[in-house]
Structure formats: structure tokens, C-alpha cells
Amino acid sequence: KAGVTQTPRYLIKTRGQQVTLSCSPISGHRSVSWYQQTPGQGLQFLFEYFSETQRNKGNFPGRFSGRQFSNSRSEMNVSTLELGDSALYLCASSPGAGGWFFGPGTRLTVL
Amino acid sequence: AQSVTQPDIHITVSEGASLELRCNYSYGATPYLFWYVQSPGQGLQLLLKYFSGDTLVQGIKGFEAEFKRSQSSFNLRKPSVHWSDAAEYFCAVGAPSGGSNYKLTFGKGTLLTVNP
Asked: Which of A16, A73, B82, B105 has the most beta carbons within 10 angstroms of its beta carbon?
């Protein structure tokens, strides 16, 4: 089976812009979650989706949003980008209780 | 709320030496525990997980971890380290988030350097 794929792998944006990141889960996985990784804060949970419904949300401002489509693919959006949003954004998918499987991440740089 | 502490930010070992990475967690119920490894520029790879049962868990790449409830610990071990094990290691605890799934809370990570 193919692993979790994320596009794009690298992205450079300027402050004030918005960005959309995409995640395709492992085939058959209906749960998708997103994490932000920075050197200072480490890995922080953003949100989790199951069957197009957001089940959990981390402590991030409303500028961070996400959604899941009927084919389980997911997108996350960050509006009005700030310098502090520069990070590696990781997507993970899960079949249920078997564990979360992570993609390679999207490296976002905000200038 | 759950939390994870990895006391060692950076560990250096010689190739062939044994390894133990420490992880302590705080969680009110029986935890789901995980170890992940991240190579530079890569995502996270699951090494092993503990849900219940046998407290000694075997994982991939020759790693194992032992769950000790009395010490709230889930330390990762490997008897003989290879140069390719150099990476950052993350311990995580899972809290139920609905259905059969759970939200992961990660420790800050331990960077492993392997000397030839």
C-alpha cells in the first residue's frame, strides 16, 4: 500500500497570504489528523477528522482550518499567514486503533 | 490533560553500544503509548506501540520498549545501535478522541547521535 502523501512538500509564502495543504491518507484509512512541528514548540496537534467530521481540535487560532472529503483526503488552510506559522506540517492517517501513520510533511516558510 | 517528558534532549552512543531512551508520561487512565522516529527532513515512522497486555513490546528495527505503570515510564531500548539509527526519537501518549481513535501528545524528542 502507498503511504500517506502530502502536497506540496515545500512552500514559500509571504505574511498575510493564505495557504492550502493537501493530504491523501493510506487507502482504507478514514481518520486523518494534522500536526504542526516547530523547533520551539515541538509537535502540536491541530485537528482530527473522521468521515468528513472534525472530531477534535487543538489550541490554534481560527486562522487554521481543515476539512475532509468523502474519499478521506484532507486539506488544511491557514489564512493571514504570520512568520510564526513557518513549520513542518504533518498529516497522519489511521485505520482506527492500529496507530497513526505519518506522511513526509509539508515545509512551510513564511517570509 | 496528558503530557510526555523525554528528559534527554541529546544522547551520543558508539556504534554497537546499547541504547535506552527515557520517556515518562502523565495520563489519568490506562495510556496508549508510542515511539516514533524521525530522520532529517522526513515524517514520523512508528517504531512500536503499547495498548494493553504484555508490558514488553517489540517493534521494528530491533527496538523494544517496556511499559512500567508504577513509574509512569515507557523507555525505548536497543541492544546494539547501528549508525543508521541516528535520528530524533519521539515518545507519545494517546488520549481517546472519539470512536476507536485517539489524539497524540508528543514529548519534545531525543536526538540520537551515533559515533563510528
From this structure: B105
Contact: A97, B100; criterion CB under 8 Å: yes
Interval A4-48: pLDDT, tens: 999 999 999 999 999 999 999 999 999 999 999 999 899 999 999
**Residues A99 and B34 sit within 8 Å (Cβ to Cβ):** yes
Question: Is the CB of B43 less than 8 angstroms away from the CB of A4?
Answer: yes
B35: Cβ–Cβ under 8 A, 6 or more apart, which residues?
B21, B23, B46, B47, B48, B49, B59, B63, B65, B74, B76, B89, B90, B91, B92
The C-alpha atoms of residue A60 and residue A65 are separated, in whole angstroms, by 9
Count of CB atoms situated within 10 Å of the CB of B105? 22
Task: Provide the mean pLDDT of chain A.
Answer: 94
